[in-house]
């Protein structure tokens, strides 16, 4: 749960300021996060006080999916492109504060400088790895199952509502606790 403008220094009202284990009674257990989200959405649609509900991922795993192979060409192209974007940003700032009024020169200098620095930093970083990690990947934390917990004062009502949801959509893989 996040709050607008709420950072680490300002937690959302009612939430603990330090990491704490979740509390409440299990009212449902689901194989996917999407199913757990749908269950909580069903509770919200039924005018249930969802402030008492928590979704807890159990049996966490770090999953790293390999996207592709890294080559010198891909590394240098990626470095050049990211450098060009940063250089364009710097060039636009320089052009904005340029008293002469010409925007083309500062933007061109920014983009060219960005490409050069992007190429150099990408080549140095990739060369330092000496081929130990010649692939790109995306990491994600996933859970083996997702439990929906509810504070004891409303847990029985939540179980009843989730049982109605499971009966109404048979075959969805949901199971009330």
Task: Break the fold down into its secondary structure elements and pairings.
Blueprint: E1 25-30, H1 33-45, E2 53-69, H2 72-96, H3 104-129, E3 135-150, H4 155-168
Antiparallel strand pairs: 1-3, 2-3
Helix pairs in contact: 2-3
What's the quick description here?
The chain has 177 residues and is an alpha+beta fold. Helix content is 44%, strand content 22%. The chain has two domains: 25-62 and 143-168, Alpha-Beta Plaits (2-Layer Sandwich), CATH 3.30.70; 71-133, no CATH class.
Structural class: alpha+beta
Number of E strands: 3
Name the shape in a single word: elongated
Q: Any idea of the CATH class of the largest domain?
A: Alpha Beta
Average pLDDT for all residues: 86
Kindly identify the CATH topology of the largest domain: Alpha-Beta Plaits
Helix content: 40-55%
Main sheet properties = 3 strands, antiparallel
Order of helices and strands: EHEHHEH
The helix count comes to 4
First CA to last CA: what distance? 23 Å
Major sheet strand order: 1-3-2
User: Beta-sheet strand percentage?
Assistant: 15-25%
Proper CATH architecture of the largest domain: 2-Layer Sandwich
Q: Output the radius of gyration.
A: 25 Å
Total individual domains: 2
Low-confidence stretches: 1-7, 170-174
Protein name: General stress protein 17M-like domain-containing protein
Organism: Pseudonocardia thermophila
Transmembrane segments: 75-97, 103-126
Biased composition (Low complexity): 1-12
């Amino acid at each position: 749960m996040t709050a607008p403008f709420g950072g680490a220094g300002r937690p959302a009202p009612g939430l603990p300021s330090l990491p704490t284990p979740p509390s409440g009674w299990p009212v449902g257990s689901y194989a996917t996060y999407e199913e757990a989200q749908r269950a909580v959405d069903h509770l919200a649609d039924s005018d249930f006080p969802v402030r008492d509900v928590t979704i807890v991922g159990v049996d966490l795993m770090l999953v790293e999916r390999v996207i592709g192979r890294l080559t010198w060409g891909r590394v240098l192209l990626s470095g050049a492109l990211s450098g060009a974007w940063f250089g364009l940003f710097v060039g636009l700032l320089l052009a904005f504060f340029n008293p002469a009024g010409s925007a083309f020169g500062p933007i061109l200098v920014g983009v060219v400088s960005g490409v050069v620095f992007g190429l150099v930093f990408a080549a140095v970083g990739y060369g330092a790895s000496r081929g130990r990690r010649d692939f790109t990947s995306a990491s994600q934390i996933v859970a083996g199952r997702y439990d929906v917990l509810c504070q004891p004062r409303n847990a029985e009502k939540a179980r009843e509502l989730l049982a109605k949801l499971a009966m109404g959509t048979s075959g969805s893989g949901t199971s009330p606790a």
